Amino acid sequence: MSESIPSTGTVHLVGAGPGDPDLLTLRAARLVMQAGLIVHDGLVDPAILALARPAARLVSVAKSRSRHTMAQDAINALLVREALAGNDVVRLKGGDPFVFGRGGEEAEACRAAGVAVQVVPGISAAMGAAAAAQIPLTHRDSASIVSFVAGQCKGLTEQDWSGLAGKGRTLVIYMGVATSEAISEKLMADGLAPETPLAVIENASRPNMRVLRGPVAGLADLVAREKIKSPALIVIGHVTAQPENELRTFALEIAQ
């Protein structure tokens, strides 16, 4: 008898949201609970991984600024290899897979190898952090334009950031803690007023969330003084100066 050839599995690119398991979509939660193999980022909260069944294989491909558990090409190859072996794969990413999550690269690699891909959107870090901190990214009185920027992009100093932040605009910077000094200098060099308010949201939607405020000119000092660590998001604009809700309902709920 000839050996049976396993059918090709499917790679599910799943957004895990900003951290709180309650913010998973129903489909994301179902896939995590049913998965046989979960390939996850370091930003995925342990409480979300705890939803996986005991027999599931959990593979961490965590990345940091100075250390990568696995290079992106190797991650792509892992997803393809497992799917071609007949395994369905849940590729679990913090936030949304297609917002600074390299989901596009992984989807391209899978399609090129003939592997089916499904994308399950998640609450992006920007949306989740802003909601947790009760900072409206848009407001009729303050901002009608929102821009998302990667703070660790190559050639940051050569880019033109003029117009990304200022009157009527909100700028959200991902992965900007390590480059906070360069970011503030770049924004001011491109015309942003030094006193423009900002907020740094650390560990958004989690019990240890912090919201720290200051002016653009003091961003690097704020990060150093408060020892801010990733995951953290920087929101720049006058929406961050909106009066805070004293009840802080969302924060209280996740802390209880």
TrEMBL record:
Domain Tetrapyrrole methylase: 10-219
Name this protein carries in UniProt: uroporphyrinogen-III C-methyltransferase
InterPro entries: 4pyrrol_Mease, 4pyrrol_Methylase_sf, 4pyrrole_Mease_sub1, 4pyrrole_Mease_sub2, CobA/CysG_C, Siro_Cobalamin_biosynth, Uropor_MeTrfase_CS
Range of residues in the leader sequence: none
UniProt keyword S-adenosyl-L-methionine present: yes
Pathway: Porphyrin-containing compound metabolism; siroheme biosynthesis; precorrin-2 from uroporphyrinogen III: step 1/1
Documented EC number(s): 2.1.1.107
Keyword Iron: no
A GO term for molecular function: uroporphyrin-III C-methyltransferase activity
Keywords: Methyltransferase, Porphyrin biosynthesis, S-adenosyl-L-methionine, Transferase
First-tier enzyme category under EC: transferase
Source organism superkingdom: Bacteria
Record organism: Novosphingobium aquae
Biological processes per GO annotation: methylation
One Pfam family from the record: TP_methylase
Transmembrane domains' residue ranges: none
Record gene name: cobA
Similarity-based family: Belongs to the precorrin methyltransferase family.
